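STRUCTURE:
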């Protein structure tokens, strides 16, 4: 088993509740997971700037505020305390792309992705790749994983699935949009509308050609078509990105020794 840790997502989630204890809380989750499940390898994935997505879609993450200074401190503390495999970043890539590339490089292994990022759903593989949204403490003191699998993705929208296959996630998000990343969608065409249509017709083009849509919904879906390929490229994780190891932790260790 390979464990892939989305550094920013993991620390940010704990920062929202733990504040200045976020790094240690996140590290303890991973320590407990490693002790319980004994993965063969553990890798971290960190972000760098990703200009090519912004070039394709100028609105991409334009609404993002700078990270809190304390959150930056916690992310660095997490990196400094990461005692497993390397923390890697992609050249002009995001942590999602680093994880996608690691999934490609370990294409025959069982993979657990530790992240809350819904973009990771496109990486799910039935019986092989799963998401671990969190690793919580029970009242009895033992942590338990909260899994999200390809079977969960296939569940209806009202059961927290998208009713589709992983390969259709990009089209699903292209229609529903992503407010957090400032990716526009089709007005008035929500998850409950597009989910069964994609499940049946597979692609947005086929939905427009063969699906039964109201006049207004069809018009709104047609409105995203001129920009669809750019949005698809932005939403699709790059599984062939160039990786480099984050040297920050090694520098800190070197200074201590």
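SEQUENCE:
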């Amino acid at each position: 088993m390979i464990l892939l840790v989305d550094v920013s997502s993991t620390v940010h989630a704990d920062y929202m509740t733990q504040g200045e204890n976020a790094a240690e809380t996140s590290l303890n989750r991973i320590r407990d997971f490693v002790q319980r499940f004994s993965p063969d390898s553990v890798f971290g994935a960190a972000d760098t700037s990703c200009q090519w997505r912004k070039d394709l879609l100028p609105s991409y993450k334009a609404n993002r505020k700078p990270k809190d200074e304390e959150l930056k401190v916690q992310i660095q503390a997490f990196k400094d305390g990461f005692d497993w495999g390397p923390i890697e970043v992609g050249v002009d890539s995001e942590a999602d792309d680093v994880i996608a590339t690691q999934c490609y490089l370990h294409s025959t292994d069982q993979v657990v992705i530790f992240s809350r990022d819904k973009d990771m759903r496109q990486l799910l593989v039935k019986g092989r790749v799963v998401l671990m949204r969190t690793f919580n403490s029970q009242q009895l003191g033992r942590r338990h994983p909260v899994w999200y699998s390809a079977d969960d993705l296939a569940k209806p929208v009202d059961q927290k699935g998208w009713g589709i296959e992983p390969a259709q996630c990009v089209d699903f998000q292209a229609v529903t949009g992503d407010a957090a990343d400032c990716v526009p969608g089709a007005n008035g065409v929500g998850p409950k509308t597009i989910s069964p249509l994609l499940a049946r017709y597979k692609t947005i083009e086929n939905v427009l050609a063969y699906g039964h849509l109201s006049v207004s919904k069809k018009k709104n879906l047609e409105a995203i078509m001129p920009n669809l390929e750019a949005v698809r490229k932005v939403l699709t994780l790059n599984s062939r990105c160039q990786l480099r190891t984050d040297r920050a932790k090694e520098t800190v260790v070197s200074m201590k020794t």
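REMARK: The chain is about 45% helix and 15% strand.
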